[in-house]
Each structure stands twice: as structure tokens, then as C-alpha cells.
Amino acid sequence: MAKPLEAGRIRLVSRSRRQLASYMWKYKALYVMALPGVLYFLLFKYVPLAGSLIAFQNYNIFNGITGSEWVGLEHFRKMFEHYDFLRILKNTLLIGLYDTIIAFPAPIVLALLLNELRLVFYKRVLQTIVYMPHFLSWVVVSGIAIGILSPSAGAVNHFLGWLGIEPVYFLGEESYIRSILISSGIWRDSGYGTIIYLAALAGINPDLYEAAEVDGAGRWRQTLAITLPSLLPTIMILFLLHIGKFLDFGFERVIVFLNPLNTENGEILDTYIYKAGLLQQQYSYTTAMGLFKSVVGLVLVLIGNFFSRKTTGESLY
């Protein structure tokens, strides 16, 4: 009795394999197109995860991972006991919070405003203008910001001078650095997010707006009752991806604005990891910091995904 069952199981597996091979051959062009992306994530995202092991070692570049001494959670203890860690973590949390509250909704508002334009040519020109800064590097963005905020030749201080206010060295005062980081990010990246939301807006059924007009709903009411609910799935997915990078604000966008006068409020985990890890060669210690950031991001995504699924029905998985 067992032999017929085993033979049937073998035939079923063989048939499934043939069907899979036939399916893959049928769509071979799509698999070939996806192959570079798959290889990219394997080589540059998943394989480097093995390097996280050095967070639990006193890593020595000459001994390698296999020859370095294991120290367990020693570097995590050192991280939490470091005299500057709480300050740097506070800066990272505050900047991440401001970025979520202020910068994340900016593309949504901009997309809604652009969507109200009826002249297609004018709409496309404005769309291109707001999208163009996304192609600028943070070095260029910081150069523009430094020029605009210059205490001697900057446009902002010229305007303040007309109002009878003394020039302000914005990048030389720690109280302004967080606002500068957030506002420069909004100017550079809002256009990219706007493209995504405009694509989602284009997929809304026009019949819904026509029905709302028949019922006497104005543009504001249509936005609240039709546009925003229709955008909610896109907003939630992008929000979940955003909070996954809550502690990963970005090394490039911060280091170009930092100087000894604003480091107190401007230094974040990314910039500290660069200084301690690359400049001071504390590889294991900074790997522990990076692992801490990743765990926090994972926890935030899991929590956000759970509440999103419960409240809106939208989730990443």
C-alpha cells in the first residue's frame, strides 16, 4: 500500500516541477529582466548581513571574522553607557520625528494642489520644476542652502536687513540646524513623492467626482470624501516604508551641513558611526550601533503594519 502512495507522490512532484519549468520558460523574458535587481539585493543587501556578526566580536581586520575574539553584548553595553549616546540618539529621534510630521505630508499636499490645476501644460511645467531638485546631490543642495543663508551675502539675511534685523549666522547656531535639515529635505525630495501620489490620483474613477458634484459637494468636500480615502492605501504603504527608516535619516544629507558650532543638535547616529567607525576604526562598536538601528526600524515596521492592518486594512504583508 505504501509503494503506490509513494509512487503517486513522486509523480505529483514530477508534474509540479514540469509545470514550474514550463511556466518559467513561458515568462523567461520577465525573469531575465528581474535578474539584475535580484542579484543587486542578494549581493549588496543580503550577503552583507553576515557582517553583522562583528558586532559581537572585537573585530580585527587582519584576523577576519573567523579569527576575531567573541565578546557577546559588550559593544552594546558600551554603546548605551557612552556619554554622548543619549544626546546623539535624542537628535536622531527628534529629526526623524520632525521629518515624519512635517516632511512626509508635504508631497501629499503638493500633489493635491497640482491635481487641482486644469491647464495641462502649466501643470506639467510645475511638476517638472518641483521634481528637478531630486536629481541634485546633497553637496549641491548644501551649497545652495549655505549661499542662501550666508550672514554676509545670503538672500535671507538681506531680507532681514530690510526689516532692520541683524544678520543671523544660521549654520553657526545649533538651534537652527534641525530646521535647516528638514526644510532642505522637503525642497529636494517632495517632488519625487509628488509623482507617486499624482499617479495614484490618476487612478481614481472620475465618476465618483461627477456623482459628488451632482450631490452638491464642493472641491473641498470631494477632497475629504473621495480623494484622501482613495489615496489612503498609497499613503499607508509609503508611511510604513518611511517609519522603517526612522533612525536612518541619512549620512549624506546631514554631514554636509555639520560644523563644530551646530554639532550639538545636528549630529545623528549615521554621522557618529562614520566618525567612530571609519575615522577611528571602531568597526565592532559601530556595527553594534547599525544593528541597533536596524532592529528599531524592524520593530517600528511590525508595529505600524499591525495597526495599519487593523485600522485601514492596508499593510505591507
Automatic annotation (TrEMBL):
It is found in: Cell membrane. Residues 89-304 form the ABC transmembrane type-1 domain. One of its GO terms (cellular component) is plasma membrane. CDD domains: TM_PBP2. Its main location: membrane. GO terms for biological process: transmembrane transport. The lineage of its organism: Bacteria, Bacillati, Bacillota, Bacilli, Bacillales. This is ABC transporter permease subunit. The chain crosses the membrane at residues 25-43, 93-114, 135-160, 180-204, 224-243, 288-307. Belongs to the binding-protein-dependent transport system permease family. It is a multi-pass membrane protein. InterPro entries: MetI-like, MetI-like_sf, UgpAE/MalFG_permease. PROSITE patterns: ABC_TM1. It comes from Paenibacillus aurantius. Keywords: Cell membrane, Membrane, Transmembrane, Transmembrane helix, Transport. The keyword Glycoprotein does not apply. The keyword Isomerase does not apply.
